[in-house]
Amino acid sequence: MENMAVKILSVDDEMDLELLLTQYFRRKIRKGEYEFYFAHNGLEALTMLVQHPDIEIILSDINMPEMDGLTLLAKVNEMRNPALKVIMVSAYGDMGNIRQAMNNGAFDFATKPIDLDDLSVTIEKAIEQINFVHETQREHSQLESIKGDLAVASEIQQAILPGKFPPFPDMVDRIDIAASMTPAKDVGGDFYDFFRIDDSHVGFVIADVSGKGVPAAIFMAVSRTIIRATGLRGASPSECLTYSNDLLASESVDCMFVTVFYGILDIDTGDIIFCNAGHNLPYVVRGTGQVEQLPNTGNVMIGAMEGMTFREGQLHLDKGDMLVMFTDGVTEAMDKDNREFGDERLVETLGEVSLHSCQQTVEAIRADVAAFVDKAEQSDDITLLVIKRK
Predict the structure, then answer these.
(1) Is the pTM here over 0.70, yes or no?
(2) pLDDT digit string (tens) for 182-191?
(3) What is the strand order of the sheet 175-182 is part of?
(4) N or C: which end of the chain has fewer CB within 10 A?
(5) What are the chain's domains?
(6) Parallel/antiparallel/unpaired status of strands 57-61 and 6-11
């Protein structure tokens, strides 16, 4: 409302009040701070409000012909405009009606004969409240806009992650793949990916960006693009993460980093070469039901410091074996008592899924985590990537 006149409607059947108000507030009127309108009963006031919807203060007498002030107040309340303030004016002895008006939502009251100095203070108080309402409305609009942007960002983020399962129709009799990512906020910092490098090799990755919300989501999109582009060129896991690390570290803001597990599967042999850059250790679920945790290759996360090298590990999947990868949002999911789901519970779940498809395995883990946390708020992104050799 800065630099704009506050529009005030006076509603009173006493004609001399118009002259009184315009004389007393003449300086503010000349300066463009106040702009007065006048009506002589409630019906005229409603017409004036339609013609000038930006009126924000009403000075209303209670006892008027055709439509009294209490009825006008009720009509104003129906407009549901929190920035429209009504100050009731009536004789001192009319306290019953004044009290009813205050109970029905009037901002304040003044008694006749009007003390214009006191009325001026009351108007200024109303203006403070009106400015507060406008500021709150602006902030609400900004939040709604941000909320809408985040909803679109969430859709975009989910769209860039592979979502078609099975992903490789010509390999459905050889490998099975399933994945999911559930952000803790509107957008997340976790991601997964998989892609064909050539006819016999598939690259796959799961990662967790430091931080939460929009910054993590942006860094996630950049990290995924770099790793995918490097992996598609046929670089080994160590070469891929070394190159990705140097590029991300050189552009990192606020010391953000990414934990990554990246592997390449030879579909013909079942051999996997992988690099684990500070990520949660995946599990292998053998076709026999045995659950094994992969050894730690001792690498640090990527994006924190340039010039790092990354050691590789090797793994073999027999037919029926399944590799289960996850982010810490799974094992660190908490119930209402702040107890973590933990690796032991995850291993218990994995001990029952050896005959499951990858999608069934993802759903089983998610269901067990959800049952454990019950109604506790999700504190971290939950991401799973499962690959099974048929």
Answers:
(1) no
(2) 888 777 789 9
(3) 175-182, 382-389, 322-326, 283-285, 291-293
(4) C
(5) 6-138 (3.40.50.2300), 161-389 (3.60.40.10)
(6) parallel
